[in-house]
Write a structure and sequence with these properties.
By secondary structure, the protein is an all-alpha fold. The chain has helices at 3-20, 33-40, 51-62. The protein has one domain (1-92): dopa decarboxylase, N-terminal domain (Up-down Bundle), CATH 1.20.1340. The longest helix has 18 residues, at 3-20.
Length: 92
């Protein structure tokens, strides 16, 4: 199989697992920014590793900072459009 298609399929599987876990997923991070930087901010290895391993390690390292914002239980931010919330009356 084409290695790119294989990696994209694996990524889709991880994404589907994430979506399936939303009802149980916490709506706040379990790690601080500093902890995530410590986990993900390490030096790159001298030699490359398999694509699937890179993906798995990235997901595992980021997981404590991932938040279930796609659920109705998350009230952290109001994301709106670029349009002003109040229209000003035009004069003249």
């Amino acid at each position: 199989m084409d290695p790119v298609k294989s990696l994209l399929g694996l990524t889709a599987d991880y994404a589907a697992q994430f979506l399936d876990s939303l009802d149980e997923r916490p709506v706040r991070a379990s790690a601080s920014v500093e902890e995530l930087v410590e986990t993900l901010g390490c030096p790159l290895p001298e030699e490359g590793i398999e694509d699937a391993q890179v993906l798995a390690e990235l997901i595992a390292g980021a997981e404590p900072g991932v938040v279930g914002t796609q659920t109705g239980r998350y009230f952290g931010f109001v994301i709106g459009s670029a349009l002003p919330a109040v229209r000003r009356r035009q004069t003249g």
